[in-house]
């Protein structure tokens, strides 16, 4: 291995300098001393398991930590930058890095946020807070057609595929989920041995490429799907319609990254570039989508089945609701992915300009289900830049029942956001198929960080809810979250958005104007153009 060879060569040179210092003269100690120190440092870096950067870049990796220590601005650059260039705030940094490491996340000073800046959001705490529950609640997924309900945690691992992530990252995430009692979404890349080794609960995601359950020509293979869905670790099935970071666009896995193992997992030829279509072959209308969800649930022997989407238009969501009513088939859950969601690679135009942000997307899906009288049959998950307890509570108030996190979980396993995901050169072994780079990620250390992060973040959410006077998420109300709309005005979510009443869509005469037109023009047999 190259890095081991370099450290070994450094040790040999250091040893030679020591010999010269003893045999030739003491001046050689000026070279021998530093060389010995560097050799010892390199050896330690290769053997330690805490820092993936040092395992992949012995000696040189210390420059990163040195620059972090020199000035706060350098530290901020290295650990705050987001994929799209927008910085995470201090709460996010604290929640992920400090909670994952099990260190205190208390701060001796006040907020660094400008509480008078338009867009600033805050909760209205109660004068009479309630005790924090001993155990966080769980969310039962399982509607009328489900015979094997699943109790979902308030925070879970969002969709990230093996192929995009390394084997070590998948192992760490799944073992963390197993030990912490939360779910691990496989992403659309299929179920690998690494997803199954530790027995963590899986949400098997099926994308447009039907990887892991596809025929030779790329169609859906019902027999293979049923066989794999019967696996004990598979607790739910999720059909991916679209992804927040690039809705309406399929993915590409370069042939160089399609190893023999990935080819086997995805049912694709080895070494050939794999393209996920931007649409599904098996349905093209809301009615066909709903019927396919019902078919998947039957093939999965009644396990909870739903779909994930980044909301496009309100009419599309309402068309799906009409199809549910007509067919009397409902998904057990819908995961709403916000446009702020991350990905390892996506065109900048899609990242910046396509898709509905999570707040609006949740509001549309939640209200559509409420208005159609279906909300009690369908649970809603939220994904897209969820990383703190405050994020969880906000999303629950906005209409979700539970949340999923991707980037925050990547941070927990060591991601430093070098933004090299698409190059196969991830410096910390998280997003690479290079076995030499992947070995830098120590599963035994990182799975514990995943577990600690999830546990502490959910506990933080429960503490916030308790401060609002709420002991159960079902008691949260829109008026508990407020947004500064200008430098001199504030409005609650109850005032900012229209909240439909149960079954209100079925009585068009009482509909608010912004919903009436969309409901009238939505068609269960056609998605809007």
Overall form = globular
**For the report, how would you describe the main beta sheet?**
8 strands, parallel
Strand content: 5-15%
Number of strands: 15
Which class best fits the helix and strand makeup? Answer: alpha/beta
Mean pLDDT figure: 85
What's the domain count? 2
CATH C-level class of the largest domain is Alpha Beta
Cα radius of gyration in angstroms: 25 Å
If strands are numbered along the chain, what order do they take across the biggest sheet? 4-13-12-11-10-7-6-5
Q: Show unreliable segments.
A: 69-87
Approximate helicity band = 40-55%
What's the architecture of the largest domain, going by CATH? Alpha-Beta Barrel
Q: Find the CATH superfamily of the largest domain.
A: Aldolase class I
**Termini separation (Å)?**
54 Å
For this structure, the CATH topology of the largest domain is TIM Barrel
Describe the structure concisely:
The chain has 529 residues and is of the alpha/beta class. 40% of the residues lie in helices and 11% in strands.
How would you describe what is shown here?
- The protein is of the alpha/beta class.
- It is built from 20 helices and 15 strands.
- β12 (379-383), α15 and β13 (402-405) form a beta-alpha-beta unit.
- α12 (314-327) packs parallel to α14.
- The radius of gyration is 25 Å and the shape is globular.
């Amino acid at each position: 291995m190259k890095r081991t060879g370099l450290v070994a060569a450094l040790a040999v040179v250091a040893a030679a300098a020591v010999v010269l210092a003893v045999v030739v003269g003491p001046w050689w100690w000026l070279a021998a001393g530093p060389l010995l120190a560097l050799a010892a440092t390199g050896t330690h870096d290769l053997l330690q398991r805490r820092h993936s950067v040092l395992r992949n870049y012995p000696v040189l990796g210390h420059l990163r930590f040195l620059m972090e220590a020199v000035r706060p601005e350098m530290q901020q650059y290295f650990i705050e930058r987001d994929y799209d260039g927008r910085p995470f705030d201090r709460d996010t940094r604290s929640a992920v890095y400090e909670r994952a490491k099990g260190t205190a996340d208390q701060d001796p000073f006040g907020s660094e946020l400008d509480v008078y800046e338009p867009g600033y959001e805050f909760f209205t705490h109660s004068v009479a807070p309630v005790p924090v529950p001993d155990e966080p609640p769980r969310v039962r997924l399982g509607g009328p057609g489900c015979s094997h309900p699943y109790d979902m945690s308030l925070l879970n691992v969002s969709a990230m595929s093996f192929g995009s992530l390394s084997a070590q990252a998948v192992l760490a995430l799944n073992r963390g989920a197993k030990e912490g009692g939360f779910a691990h979404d496989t992403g659309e890349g299929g179920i690998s041995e690494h997803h199954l080794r530790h027995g963590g609960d899986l949400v098997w995601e099926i994308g447009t490429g039907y990887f892991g359950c596809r025929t030779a020509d790329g169609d859906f293979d019902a027999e293979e799907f049923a066989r794999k869905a019967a696996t004990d670790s598979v607790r739910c099935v999720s059909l991916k319609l679209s992804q927040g970071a690039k809705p309406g666009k399929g993915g590409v896995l370069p042939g160089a990254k399609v190893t023999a193992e990935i080819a086997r997992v995805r049912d694709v030829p080895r070494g050939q570039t794999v393209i996920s279509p931007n649409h599904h072959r098996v349905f093209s209308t809301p009615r066909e989508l709903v019927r396919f969800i019902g078919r998947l649930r039957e093939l999965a022997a009644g396990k909870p089945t739903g779909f994930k989407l980044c909301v496009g238009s309100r009419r599309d969501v309402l068309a799906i609701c009409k199809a549910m009513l007509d067919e009397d088939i409902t998904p057990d859950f819908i995961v709403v992915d916000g446009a702020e969601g991350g990905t390892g690679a996506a065109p900048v135009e899609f990242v910046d300009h396509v898709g509905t942000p999570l707040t609006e997307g949740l509001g549309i899906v939640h209200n559509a289900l409420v208005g159609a009288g279906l909300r009690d049959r369908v649970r809603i998950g939220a994904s897209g830049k969820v990383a703190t307890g405050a994020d969880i509570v906000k999303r629950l108030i906005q209409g979700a029942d539970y949340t999923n996190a991707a980037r925050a979980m990547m941070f927990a396993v060591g991601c430093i956001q070098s933004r090299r995901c698409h190059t196969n050169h991830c410096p910390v072994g998280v997003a690479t198929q290079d076995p030499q780079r992947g070995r830098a990620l120590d599963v035994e250390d990182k799975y514990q960080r995943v577990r600690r992060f999830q546990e502490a973040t959910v506990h933080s959410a429960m503490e916030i809810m308790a401060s609002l006077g709420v002991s159960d998420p079902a008691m949260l109300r829109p008026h508990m979250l407020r947004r500064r709309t200008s430098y001199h005005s504030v409005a609650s979510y109850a005032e900012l958005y229209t909240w439909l009443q149960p079954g209100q869509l079925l009585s068009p005469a009482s509909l608010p104007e912004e919903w009436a037109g969309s409901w009238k023009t939505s068609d269960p047999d056609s998605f809007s153009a």
